[in-house]
From TrEMBL:
Domain Ribosomal RNA adenine methylase transferase N-terminal: 37-206
Subunit structure: Part of the small subunit (SSU) processome, composed of more than 70 proteins and the RNA chaperone small nucleolar RNA (snoRNA) U3.
Family matches, as InterPro entries: KsgA/Erm, rRNA_Ade_Mease_Trfase_CS, rRNA_Ade_methylase_Trfase_N, rRNA_adenine_dimethylase, SAM-dependent_MTases_sf
Top-rank EC class of the record's enzyme: transferase
Species name: Papilio xuthus (Asian swallowtail butterfly)
Role description: Specifically dimethylates two adjacent adenosines in the loop of a conserved hairpin near the 3'-end of 18S rRNA in the 40S particle. Involved in the pre-rRNA processing steps leading to small-subunit rRNA production independently of its RNA-modifying catalytic activity. Part of the small subunit (SSU) processome, first precursor of the small eukaryotic ribosomal subunit.
Family per record: Belongs to the class I-like SAM-binding methyltransferase superfamily. rRNA adenine N(6)-methyltransferase family.
EC number of the protein: 2.1.1.-
Any one Pfam family match given in the protein's UniProt record, by short name: RrnaAD
Protein name: rRNA adenine N(6)-methyltransferase
UniProtKB keywords: Methyltransferase, RNA-binding, rRNA processing, S-adenosyl-L-methionine, Transferase
């Protein structure tokens, strides 16, 4: 008879393993176990003794404990009640207990309180919505130092013309300054993820650019669907034209403007693109200033993206 291979046991954090807790892959639980990387992330975040720090997905509290030593207060948001209990146990009866506030639940569905700084090894599957939740959070925070999947981090910092430059890149860079801090190998986590990781520093632009972000997002969505095509070609899609025409008619109705009988949305769009000299440009080579110029040109002619 062929030998039956023994099932591989899930690699779990030693302390948690003793209690029979196994990490939940649905929550993207990969505990950062290397204390040098934790210390480096905290050093690069520029924590101050007066700060209120936010941590998303504290896990077993390796980073939380080091952070509590440096700031006035830590707000930890954790979805897994088993790990919440473990974190509470670690601070119980210590001076840190009064400095730690735990929010139990899904961070994407939680109304976040005020914080000065965010340092976290976040669940990778919520990377994109979390970045924009943080960037649209008010009042402004000073900066965030976050661990991401390496390719996601590269997209965040990509510049016009780079292979990975995309809508995520330009939407993030409109609202924040983004810097790559360091690469982190998969063996620094337990259990190790399937991908390499990177740490990124995100610093919100304060004040933010004077722009309607929903409109901006609508414009970049159209341009980046076919980022290698010219804008002239990207805007010729029938569903895009239909949506823009509908928005234009709403705008005219609200402002009591009469729509000419021979009005042609395709012609109007091409005229605007040509006038600003961007009709032959491609989204993959355009920066924030180019898109701001384009959005202003469309809006001033009554064409909106929201």
């Amino acid at each position: 008879m062929p030998k039956i291979k023994a099932e591989k046991k899930a690699r779990v954090h030693n302390e948690i393993a003793k209690q029979g807790i196994q990490f939940n892959k649905d929550f993207g639980q990969h505990i950062l176990k290397n204390p040098l990387i934790i210390t480096s992330m905290l050093d690069k975040s520029g924590l101050r003794p007066t700060d209120v720090a936010l941590e998303i997905g504290p896990g077993t509290g390796n980073m939380t404990m080091k952070m509590l030593d440096r700031v006035k207060k830590v707000i930890a948001c954790e979805i897994d009640t088993r790990l919440v209990a473990e974190l509470q146990k670690r601070v119980q009866g210590t001076p840190y207990q009064s400095k730690l506030q735990i929010i139990v639940g899904d961070v994407l569905k939680t109304e976040l309180p005020f914080f000065d700084i965010c340092v976290a090894n976040i669940p990778y599957q919520i990377s994109s919505p979390l970045v924009f939740k943080l960037l649209l959070h008010r009042p402004f925070f000073r900066c965030a130092v976050l661990m991401f999947q390496q390719e996601f981090a590269q997209r965040l910092v990509a510049k016009p013309g780079d292979k990975l430059y995309c809508r995520l890149s330009i939407n993030t860079q409109l609202l924040a300054r983004v810097d790559m801090l360091m690469k982190v190998g998969k063996n620094n986590f337990r259990p190790p993820p399937k991908v390499e990781s990177s740490v990124v520093r995100i610093e919100p632009r304060n004040p933010p650019p004077p722009i309607n972000f929903v409109e901006w997002d609508g414009l970049t969505r159209i341009a980046f669907v076919r980022k290698n095509k010219t804008l002239s070609a990207a805007f010729k899609h029938s569903t895009t034209m239909a949506a823009l025409e509908k928005n234009y008619k709403v705008h005219c109705s609200l402002h009591n403007k009469e729509i000419p009988e021979d009005f042609d949305i395709k012609q109007k769009v091409q005229e605007i693109l040509t006038t600003v000299g961007l009709d032959q440009m491609r989204a993959r080579t355009m920066d924030c200033d180019d898109f701001m110029k384009l959005l202003h040109a469309f809006n001033s002619e009554g064409i909106h993206f929201a």
